[in-house]
Amino acid sequence: MIRIALVLSLFARVASAQWWQHAVVYEIYPRSFQDSNGDGIGDLKGITSRLDYLHDLGIDAIWLTPIYPSPQVDFGYDISNYEAIDPQYGTLADFDTLVHEARKRGIRILMDMVMNHTSDQHPWFIESRSSRTNPKRDWYVWRDGKAPGQPPNNWLALFGHSAWQYDSGTGQYYYHKFYPQQPDLNWRNPAVERAMFRAVRFWLDRGVAGFRLDAITNLFEDPQLRDERVLGGTNAYGDPNEDDARTDNLPEVHDVLRSLRMVINTYPGDRVLIGETYLHGPEDLNKMYGRNNDELQLPMDMQVGLIDTLDATAYRRRITEAETMVRGNMPLFVFNNHDIHRSWDRYHPAAARIVATILLATRATAQMYYGEEIGMTTTTPTRKEDVRDPIGVIGWPREKGRDGERTPMQWDATANAGFSTSASPWLPVPSSSDSVNVAREQANPGSLLSWYKRLIALRRTDPAMARGDNAMLDYDSLNVLVWLRKTPGRTVVVACNLSAQPKTIVLRGALRPILRSDSAATGRSLPPYAVYIGAVE
Ligand code: NOJ
Fold first, then answer.
1. Bridge partners of 28?
2. Which atom of ligand 1 lies closest to the CA of 159?
């Protein structure tokens, strides 16, 4: 009886938790997911046609990278209208259909909101640059140069060279943290916040479940425009390395986040704010939740997923930090996205199941990236003339850009991997699609795709995996990563051998296997790179 009551109370906790707390968020780069009209570019109808696949995978939400009208200099991160859909991706009606069809399958849609900058083709900027006295002049960051031909200070764009662009029409410079075609908005002007929050409401009214906030820590710059400290050495673009204290993570960001959180809180259904938060450490990340937990619900933790080496000590330390420094909030782990080389290439290829397990079997909310579940690799262009991402053009050959992690989704072994019927998809389909594709892996219970599905299912159905505490155990000397997921009635152990040698570990209690990557893994004995998940009885 007591046992039944316990199980029931656990399920009540599961039911009352907010949906995003233990969700799996799946990032789609719409250009590359599924093309429905044969123009070589993925689109909204294409995504809708693949919802059954995503439902079967078990995800809770889709984060769509920007689909708004855009000159596509930064493939959508340069927005020229925040309240419409770019025709190359479809129409608002297609968007509504996507939201509706996704909802029918229990999947929510998250938009990417780019509040730091617009396109230089946005009507706001066109007005702003038209004259020094235009009412929108102050919507962007305009300054006089230090001297003729010299920008106001030494700030650098993240995408190479000075962050200041001279505008000959009005004789001043404007600030851009990213490309010159992405002028930064001036968040010290309250009209900017009003305009941006209007766009936020537009999408909330259309039923989106929340937003991934692009470059959110970059909203403000030092008002005195003091130079950044020069650190020595040069970056991939040949510019001097600089600190970012004057242009990143200024305290004013928190005021905007609190106001934005108030906006989304007025909507029913647990709308969520996810932040793109590449920060210097767990203390900074912790602040993004807000002092009173009134800012981001899910700032991305980029510390765990970018360890990039199979080192149990580093994982144990960082997962522990993520768990203990968030004051009861949820960490959000990420190993892959459209800006970083795919985890398959950053880690040992044999580590794909380990990466999936750290992502999906820890307590954190999980964010994955299309193609991760089948083991897609980074396919970087080999010739400068093939590069589509301007970073790769500016930085070649040290920085080859991000095309490699944005190649089309590999659905099957037919032409263009089932992505498009076009003779020339916007990025070439990697030849690996002959063997690495959804159709092939769906048919194989031992595939990486099957592993992801089983982990996601376990995360939903096993109370300890769904809601249990996360306690890291110290097997560092063996380079084995072990943790417990615990609810009052149930304990599950997860053990990952991060090394190329078989390992034996001491574990207390009787073990009943739930999921293992290798039938020879017993929990206490782990073949190279093996993962074992079992109930402790
Ligand atoms: C971060 C996005 O993820 C990246 O793709 C983009 O280029 C920059 N922000 C600028 O918006």
1. 64
2. 7
